[in-house]
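Problem 12. The chain below contains 316 residues. Write out its predicted structure in token notation.
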Amino acid sequence: MKIVIPGGTGQVGIVLKRALCAAGHDVVVLSRRPRRQDEVHWDGVTPGPWAEEIDGSDVVVNLAGRSVNCRYTPANLREMMDSRVHSTRAVGEAIAAAARPPRVWLQMSTATVYAHRYDAPNDETTGVIGGTEPDAPGYWAYSVDIAKAWEREQETANTPHTRKVALRAAMVMSPDRGGVFDVLLRLARLGLGGPVAGGAQYVSWIHDQDFVRAVEFLIARDDITGPVNLAAPAPLPHREFMRALRRAWGVPVGLPATRWMAETGAFVLRSDTELLLKSRRVVPGRLLDAGFTFGRPDWPAAADDLVRRLRSTGTR
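Solution.
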């Protein structure tokens, strides 16, 4: 198949492209700064020659959008919103104008769309959409607004011959440098991998190989449309999540951090505490109902695998 990946130069795109190429597919990445022969320039906003790659392709997987690993300033939040909405609109316009449109459009979304909660898991049917939680900082609601606008742009695109799926993805854990697993493992190795603000908040995640397998599964299943949670079926509290990560690497202890310490650390790292403090208790209801089987459903075994793969490269 020919698969086009707008925004495919980030960590998740690298994981997906590597696997799809290994499976024998023809993969083309759309990038604002193309550096390789199989990367094509686009600006993520306006129509251009890049649309010719979509016309006649089999699958589009749109991953474009500004990284959330930044300070949530008004300017950065606006850039997050615009980069997601504008790129999704551009992809929809290219598919609508194609003489031979792709048969499926997988659109990246986020598990952050769900409410900050501890009491029950969020699946696609009974999950609570966030934005009005009384115990969450007000600016967290803007992240939910971004997710809703992102999905709405795909949903309203006029692409009647192309099946559409919104990927409500949790954090994708891979051993690649620069990804979320790399950041969390660095904290653990420095002895800072203890619970943050008590550690009761839930962490939702998905192993990189299960992410790829889920994408392949959704490409093949012509009966699935709309939002799908891409998350392992066993989210767990942050304190347990970090304990398993420390155990996988062999770090005996991790210093706990209060909320204000997390704020200070996030400021130094030019990130935001929402990524640590929001309780994302998300489960993959539709994937499980459709018969998808996770290879790494539980975090301790997944962390062991990621550490083993990382050490096998000889880079740590």
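Discussion. The chain has eleven helices and eleven strands. Students who got a different answer should revisit the alignment rule from Section 12.3.
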